[in-house]
Specification:
The complex is a heterodimer of chains A (116) and B (116). By secondary structure, chain A is mostly beta strands. Chain A is built from no helices and eleven strands. Chain A is globular. The N and C termini of chain A lie far apart (36 Å). With 116 residues, chain B is mostly beta strands. The interface between A and B is medium-sized, with 30 and 26 residues.
């Protein structure tokens, strides 16, 4: 089954304790992305990756890091989480980029993060 | 500054009737628009899209209309079914721009409740 998986699904942590949210896709997609969803703000892009070893900032990258060492995985790293990073996080992937790209992105089930 | 706006946080419709969800955007460079549907505890799933070269796209019970001059799009669901109850996100992208990154700009979502 084609899917995007995220782990953990729920996480409660404390300020300053480093954490990683994993994301994996089995569709051989080149493009992967992280979004956060907050009330009244919709989904906002944090980071994206066009391919292995190619990553760039989205609209709200502060406080986050990512890596893309393999095509299927795109972990989101919070080196020192703060309460304002409490949010619902979604990983997404799509086949490629560009004018003829198949632009519909497949989303993971979400990770609910609470930073105390 | 919200580039994609969904001004109705919620909508209630009777089963069998038409549901109309609205979305406005401000960036005239957007050339591709998508609707996503989201159930609780799941990630958004792609529903339907439309390119800026069209003004209508239909897929079964779902039709999206695009009015470029008004920078407005709408999603029509006919007939509405209880299983359509979900949050609907409008999203926009610039897929033909040089250096396009597949970034989606999302609205804040509309919660649709279809009453049996």
């Amino acid at each position: 089954e084609a899917q995007v998986t995220q782990n953990p699904r729920y996480l409660i942590t404390v300020t300053g304790k480093k954490l990683t949210v994993t994301c994996s896709q089995n569709m051989n997609h080149e493009y992967m992305s992280w979004y956060r969803q907050d009330p009244g703000l919709g989904l906002r892009q944090i980071y994206y990756s066009m391919n292995v070893e190619v990553t760039d900032k989205g609209d709200v990258p502060e406080g986050y890091k990512v890596s893309r060492k393999e095509k299927r995985n795109f972990p989101l790293i919070l080196e020192s989480p703060s309460p304002n990073q409490t949010s619902l996080y979604f990983c997404a992937s799509s086949l490629s980029v560009g004018p003829r790209s198949y632009n519909e992105q497949f989303f993971g089930p979400g990770t609910r993060l609470t930073v105390l | 500054d919200q580039q994609v706006k969904q001004n109705s946080p919620s909508l209630s419709v009777q089963e069998g009737r038409i549901s109309i969800l609205n979305c406005d955007y401000t960036n005239s460079m957007f050339d591709y628009f998508l609707w996503y549907k989201k159930y609780p505890a799941e990630g958004p799933t792609f529903l339907i899209s439309i390119s800026s070269i069209k003004d209508k796209n239909e897929d079964g019970r779902f039709t999206v209309f695009l009015n470029k001059s008004a920078k407005h799009l709408s999603l029509h669901i006919v007939p509405s079914q209880p299983g359509d109850s979900a949050v609907y996100f409008c999203a926009a992208s610039e897929i033909r721009r040089r250096g396009a990154t597949n970034k989606l700009i999302f609205g804040t979502g509309t919660l649709l409740a279809v009453q049996p």
